[in-house]
Amino acid sequence: MGECHRMRHLPHNCFAMRKTCLQLLQGCSQQQLLFWRNYLTADSQQQKSQQPELPQTVLSFLLLLSITTVLILVTWPCLRQSLGTNPCLVPNNFALMETTRPISSCDICSAELPVRLHRPDRAGFAAHAYRGRPVLVSGATETWPARRRVNLSFLRRLYARVGANASSVSEDGCQFLAFRSPLESLEEVLEGRVEAAADGPPWYIGWSNCDPRVAAMLRGLYSWPELLPEEGEGSAVDWIFMGTPGQGTAVHIDNVHRPSWQAQIAGSKRWRLFPPPECEKVCRPITVDVHPGDIFLLDTNQWYHGTEVIGREMSITIGSEYD
Predict the structure, then answer these.
(1) pLDDT digit string (tens) for 130-173?
(2) CA 73, chain centre distance (Å)
(3) Cα(166)–Cα(197) distance, rounded to whole angstroms?
(4) Distance (Å, whole) CA 52 – CA 149
(5) Hey, what's the torsion of the CAs at 294, 299, 300, 303, to 10 degrees?
(6) Rounded to two decimals, what is the model's pTM?
(7) What DSSP element (H or E) covers 118?
(8) Which residues touch 231 (CB under 8 Å, ≥6 apart)?
């Protein structure tokens, strides 16, 4: 009996010490044998149930580490460049955008697209303002002086007149996008280092118009589209996109959190739209040609989109976000 009670002082891994435990059990009664058999069996089962937890935790950690490593390797070249030249620390990278974007409702393509409207008032556009469906509005900018006056020469004179520093566009919260062009700054365009001729090397750029003097003079030539919701709020910064025939943007998706509008001031541009992957069985790709006088409204956070300047004239668009 004394030998049996000594088992109380054994560690919980007694079941693994099978030979020692069996020797000690020889001095136990039938009731004590039953007790220790149940005790050792329960201890063994508990250990077995706990064993997968550590490998599962390690596996989860390794999986997370692998995903993080892949994202860093994919985004690092753009991120390293952005740290030196762009105030946005996270680049517009396809892999990063795809892994972080919200899932879209396929209602964005539950109608004939694009939705085509001709000079709608605010009430006529209200049903489409936040549905995520591409909307092409014709005749919306017929009274804008920008239609007649804004071109590359005008922009060059405007920036020179107010003394705006085109090289500062990428500073102070502004952005310059060269897309697939070999240009590095707005300065190259506004100082005449490239031409607008259709037979020259193609180029296409975009920039956020952050200089208040330039913004004030340009907004005297166009107005906030009257069709947009009255209760909504617009961005204080407008964007200008400009380029020559044959050039444009690669297919991408934005992360601006609000739908956008672009007014075609000069030339023509072709948009190629692709639905998000979760809607590929419901939606189809769309091609939309936008001409002077048109406004194109698109939720660029949901639709993958690429553009190309078509025709023989330079394309100039002015646009912004709305909420």
Answers:
(1) 999 999 999 989 899 999 999 999 999 998 888 766 655 555 56
(2) 18
(3) 22
(4) 72
(5) -100
(6) 0.69
(7) strand 115-118
(8) none
